[in-house]
Amino acid sequence: MAKRILITDDALFMRVTLKNILVQNGYEIVGEACNGAEAIQMYKSLKPDLVTMDITMPELDGLSALKEIRSIDPAANVVMCTAMGQSKMVAEALGSGAKDFIIKPFQAETVVEAIGKALAA
Amino acid sequence: MKVEYVSPFANAAIAVSESLLKTVPERGDLAVRPKLFTSQQVSIVCGVTGSIEGHVIYGMSMATADKIASIMIGQSVVTFDQIAASALAELANLISRNAVSRLAEQGFKCEITPPTILRGSNVQVSLLEIPALVIPLNSEAFGMIEIGMSLQDRQLAA
Question: Which residues pair with B124 in a beta bridge?
Fold first, then answer.
């Protein structure tokens, strides 16, 4: 059965791009959240195998959402999506239980590798 | 408006273009304008806050916007819809974040605000009464992006 993924990003373009890459590589996209608060709600109701999490978002940022999701489910698989120059936040995310991170602009192979590793770990 | 703020943005735009649009644009000649404005059909505005503050406008023609969005989305953009607008906003966001991390290496700590897309020509953004520097980037793949910057030290603004 295809692994179920929840995408979190405030930018429509990023959600569409990630969705295309992941669907083409055999993953199922179970939901698309536009901010951290939506991601938490959708995590609870959809119970995905993995969450991709943007860092800078309105309402609730990706770091706070990551921490909340990990407190709901300590085994949650979360991969951060970040722009260049956010290394402090990446370090904090990894310290808070994120499995890996992808730096934008990303290539399809990088995304597939990071998601595959996070799900295998 | 110091010239030293120009290169981080120009180099960031070239680097992001190389990885995202698979083309390395050429830097054109720097121009000075008394105020920050854009006569381009599509403009993406990012605010800069922190030790440097002001605005950066990425301006381009509708044809260039369509070409860039088509490259980013991976299929031809027929109508400039929400996804195309979101792609251009993301491009501006990535260039600005890349530039801000280059500025941090020079000791300037700043953040950017989320991009705003303006459509329609002759838009004037006159929030700061400081001259603007404009640098064009040309590429055979997408045409020309004009980066207009109106930035100043926080201390000078206070």
Answer: B37
**What's the CATH superfamily of B3-157?**
CheC-like (3.40.1550.10)
A50-54 and A28-33 strand pairing: unpaired
Interface test with A, best of B11, B21, B94, B97 (most A CBs within 10 A): B97
**B34 to chain A nearest CA, in Å?**
31
Q: What is the pLDDT of residues B83-121, one digit of tens each?
A: 999 999 999 999 999 999 999 999 999 999 989 999 887
pLDDT digits (tens, 9 = 90+) for A26-80: 999 999 999 999 999 999 999 999 999 999 898 999 999 999 999 999 999 999 9
Q: Tell me which chain B residues have a C-beta less than 8 angstroms from the C-beta of A107.
A: 19
Q: How far A85 CA lies from chain B's nearest CA (Å)?
A: 5
Nearest-angstrom CA–CA distance, B130 and B54: 9
Interface of B with A in 52-81 (CB under 8 A): 72-74
Domain ranges of chain A: 4-120
- Which residue among A16, A86, A105 places its CB closest to the CB of B83? A16
Q: Which CATH superfamily is domain A4-120 in?
A: Response regulator (3.40.50.2300)
Q: In sequence order, which residues have a C-beta less than 8 Å from that of residue B9 and are 6 or more positions away?
A: B56, B95, B96, B99, B135, B147, B149
Work out the percent of chain A whose per-residue pLDDT is above 70. Answer: 99
